[in-house]
Batch of 3 targets.
Target 1
Amino acid sequence: MTQPDHDDWHVFRPNPIGGETPPELSTGDPEDDQLLRQIAARARLDLPREYRHYLYVPDQESAQTIVRPLEATGWQAEIYASDDAGEPYCVVAARDGVVLTADLVRSARELFQKLASLIPGADYDGWEVSIGTDEYLEPDSEQ
């Protein structure tokens, strides 16, 4: 499957930063909370960035069904077909200039999970944000 170029993107997995989630980072979803804590430990949350979500659907028609409401609500959405027959299509939805907050993450997860629930065989695969290498915080830096 051909995916977009991610030169300025860094993958963080929800596991290395433990502890309690501060109220301002609490989304109600443990994995989202963990990911927000991880991002906050490495970069400032108050900077605008690109925010991407991934959904997998069984076919082109299902992908179009997902894309229409996303674009109607201001998301940019692209469909990526698998190079292998029978593999799912990937819908990548993005917004640029987003300041990441717990409320935004919570509402976006609700939207994408609801869309995935409308399509048999669809799967919401999570989200990521852009973090430039020049904005990493030093361990003792203040946010």
Target 2
Amino acid sequence: MNHPEISLRHLVRQPIQPSHGPPPLLILAHGYGSNEQDLIGLADYLDDRLLIVSVRATLSMGGGAYAWFSIVYTPSGIEYDQEEAEAGAKALEKAVDEILAAYEVNRRCVFLGGFSQGAIMSLSVALGQPEKFAGVLVMSGRVPPSSVEKADPQRVRDLSIFAAHGKWDEVIPVDYARHMREALEELPVDLTYREYPMGHQVSAESLADIDAWMRSKLS
């Protein structure tokens, strides 16, 4: 399933329903300790017109587990390596360019999305290069402060963001998501923010809203 010109291991779900012209594209980035097989399972619940590419993160944790950057749990909270996080974002950014070069897609309908750590990476990449994306999907994530600080208000005006978070999230508490909402509301992005009665997960309710949001952008 891997395209030789794409640097990250990945899985592809080809469009099931043809589009009028090249298909829209959704690139998915998994969370900490998972792999590319995780989010490809969401394809069955999303628009059949989408070409979906689920990519594997860069750091091997062993046993089929991967991460975009290392994290350490401390009494004061989660700590992470900033340089690794920046390297992970650059690897995802490079993979996006390679996917766009490898597949004929509708460049006006390119979406980037992720879960947890993959959501952090996706939002960071999209805020840094908003012209490439019609929208970004943030599932159970948070926003790196530096990404908001570096975002150019003029460039992000056409970027749509859907953020879904569990009220009972035990990994990334909902307060982080609410802070993310406040930070993103300072930018002229088209933000849709929703909280759900769930933990650190994707629920049927959140998936239905995600699908409806994406369909509205494709129509």
Target 3
Amino acid sequence: MHLPDGFLSPPVFASGWVLALGSLSYCLKKTREILKDKMIPLMGVMAAFIFAAQMLNFPVLGGTSGHLLGGVLAAVALGPFAGFIVISLVLAVQCLVFQDGGITALGANIVNMGLAGTIVGYYIYAALKKSVFRNNALAAVFLSAWVSVILASGLCALELAFSQASPLNIVLPAMLFVHVFIGLGEAIITGMVVMFIIKVRPDLIYAKPAG
């Protein structure tokens, strides 16, 4: 999922940077508007937890492995905008310090895992919780976490196809197939963590401001 340098064409990775920086600017503005005393330390704790959890891979298929994306988890605890900031920070540290993902591709990685995997994933969670699952937060978390991985991997495949790194009819099915199973791991881990938070500190779960 972490795209390295050399796979995306200049127009694609430049578009990723523009969209990532624009989204980050908007999320910083929205987060400042709703900032609470407990949010800053919680953002730090969540960033550290997701960073550490992403270091632990779980086997999937044929020698491949997956790891926690953490977008829906961050958004459920912090809200979609602060969650985006946390995921962007984690991706930036992974890229700049551990060379996990390329510098030119960092914008695209933030779009894939921050914009699609976190913000869109959160609104899928909110919609499912309100309608399909009738306030069953855990079921909504499980499904939205799985969908967020599929969305992020599909967007990654489209970027590779637009960059002519691989034909769409090859890269899209390949990415979606393996991430269907990686998404299950994401859903299980996210569900377990959210269930623990709800049981121990339910006040830490993000509540959308009224109005």
